[in-house]
TrEMBL record:
Protein name: DUF2931 family protein
Assigned keywords, A-Z: Membrane, Transmembrane, Transmembrane helix
Keyword Transcription: no
The UniProt record lists the keyword Membrane: yes
Organism, scientific name: Pedobacter nyackensis
Transmembrane segments: 6-23, 30-51, 71-91, 112-135, 141-160
């Protein structure tokens, strides 16, 4: 009986501690504290299994009552849990440093009390199970152990989902409260074309009440490595603050050896509208609410500056574009022959930025060598027309989503109702469209439209400008029988095929 009781007690202690951790958003500190306290919990459960005076008096040892054991166990374990900080307080009296940690005994017990309640509940449940049905029979004990072990992943899964739900709920509440106060959690990011690196000289966000906030990108005023136009690079660090109503930014273009400055209001109302309302997105088969949390500032040759609002999901919207003025900075350029990292006025740094293959890949350097800078190209990418996407599919096909990436660096995902119910509006020219769906047998399928830049821009120009169309539909027709899909511009009887692509069949397990 003694051996079986000890094994049962250790099992109860381990299960109780594990399940308690499963219900907490446990960090390393809590895990470490749990491991340190586990010997005490094991002693506590062993004492529970051997302290039978009350149960003998009530004739409950040979025929245990599950409800009595639950109540008795909970009170027993809670009393011993509360005793732990008292023992730590008394035991550390001789050590000034340790005693200081437990000096405020009342606050310590109050802070730990919710965890004590949870741990006592789990210990009481497992102890009552084993005392009630398992202590007299090894066969029953094995069955109880199996049940407990099976319940571990179930409890962990439920606890994990609860944590995620609570975190999401808490985040949503925090965002809502901040929005009421005019604050949003966001950061600024810099962007530039791969071949044409830039560096911030001075940057200021100007907030609605006129406050100026000076910012830098990354560790000081550094450059982007292997930058992509429209993609976020070095950032200002996420903070909860107002959205800017204006920007005052001066930057240096290495390829042009020119400083540019934009000091201008931006579309604050559009920013506020986007940042104030979450939008839907999908990961796998699950729906999520996402938020805008980045303001990307793009710097292109010729002094073009474009601003996008970027979200945590697959969403990026242009806020505005600006033409900078050339400015002269009086600080002289140093030519000491020694590299000073990040120093805009160090000649060796300027040379390094243009020749470093980590900043501008070698292939890009070779393609642009001795070629003029294509001024106006990034403004041309912003060309937009009045159109909307439509989808022609078989009735049995269930569309998952349609992910649009545009040449103007915007991104938008159509899903659920927005797949079929979207309106004509000014949109950029698509660079890539990736559509996912499930066929009638539940197999996952997709089609990936990679639009050629030169051909697609010409076709849009022909359809809208030469044919004098004011608006159109871009129809995506998915044919499961021929295993092909087409993208076609349409306006009444007029139509122009942009691209045909093969359907990808991933299968059920994808």
């Amino acid at each position: 009986m003694t051996f079986k009781s000890i094994i049962s007690a250790i099992l109860v202690a381990i299960l109780g501690l594990f399940f308690m951790l499963s219900t907490q958003n446990a960090d390393l500190n809590l895990v470490y504290a749990t491991l340190c306290c586990s010997p005490y919990v094991i002693l506590m459960t062993i004492f529970y299994f051997h302290f039978n005076y009350i149960r003998r008096k009530l004739n409950l040892l040979h025929e245990p009552d599950i409800f009595f054991e639950l109540a008795y166990g909970f009170v027993f374990y809670l009393a011993f849990c509360v005793l732990l900080p008292v023992l730590l307080f008394v035991g550390s009296i001789g050590d000034a440093y340790e005693h200081k940690l437990y000096a405020d005994l009342g606050d310590l017990i109050f802070e730990m009390f919710p965890i004590f309640l949870i741990l006592s509940s789990f210990l009481a449940v497992f102890s009552s199970l084993i005392i009630g049905w398992a202590i007299k029979s090894y066969k029953t004990l094995v069955a109880v152990i199996i049940i407990c072990v099976i319940s571990i992943p179930i409890t962990y899964s439920i606890a994990l989902d609860t944590h995620q739900y609570n975190r999401a709920k808490q985040k949503a509440e925090t965002i809502a409260n901040n929005i009421k106060e005019g604050y949003y959690e966001w950061h600024g990011s810099m962007s530039n074309p791969t071949a044409y690196p830039v560096q911030l000289y001075k940057g200021y966000f100007i907030f609605p009440k006129g406050e100026k906030y000076e910012f830098t990108f990354s560790e000081g005023n550094t450059v982007n490595y292997e930058a992509q136009w429209g993609e976020d690079g070095g950032d200002t660090g996420k903070q909860t603050m107002s959205l800017p109503k204006a920007l005052d930014i001066t930057w240096y273009s290495f390829a042009e050896d020119i400083f540019y400055r934009v000091n201008s209001p931006i579309d604050y109302n559009k920013l506020q509208m986007l940042f104030s309302k979450p939008y839907a997105d999908k990961r796998g088969a699950r729906n999520f609410e996402e938020n805008y949390d980045k303001i990307i500032i793009g710097f292109a040759p010729g002094g073009l500056m474009v601003i996008w609002a970027d979200g945590t999901g697959r969403r990026r919207i242009e806020i505005g574009h600006f033409q900078a003025e050339k400015v002269t900075i009086s600080t002289p350029v140093s030519n000491k022959g020694k590299l000073e990292y990040g120093n805009l006025f160090n000649l060796e740094w300027r040379k390094k930025v243009l020749t470093d293959t980590m900043i501008v890949p070698l292939k890009i350097q070779q393609l642009t060598k001795n070629k003029p800078i294509p001024y106006g190209y990034w403004d041309k990418l912003r060309t937009s027309y009045n159109w909307r996407p439509t989808f022609v599919i078989s009735p049995e096909i269930k569309i998952h989503d349609a992910d649009f990436s545009f040449y103007n660096a915007e991104r938008f995902v159509f899903l659920d109702e927005s797949l079929q119910n979207n309106v004509h509006e000014k949109r950029g020219i698509p660079e890539n469209v990736y559509i996912k769906w499930y066929d009638k047998n539940g197999n996952r399928c997709a089609v990936d439209f990679e639009f050629n830049e030169e051909k697609t821009f010409k076709k849009f120009d022909t359809f809208f400008n030469l044919r004098k169309n004011t608006r159109a539909e871009l129809e995506f027709n998915i044919n499961q029988i021929s295993k092909t899909a087409t993208a076609t511009l349409k306006n009444g009887k007029e139509q122009l095929v942009l691209l045909e692509s093969e359907i990808i069949e991933y299968g059920k397990k994808y």
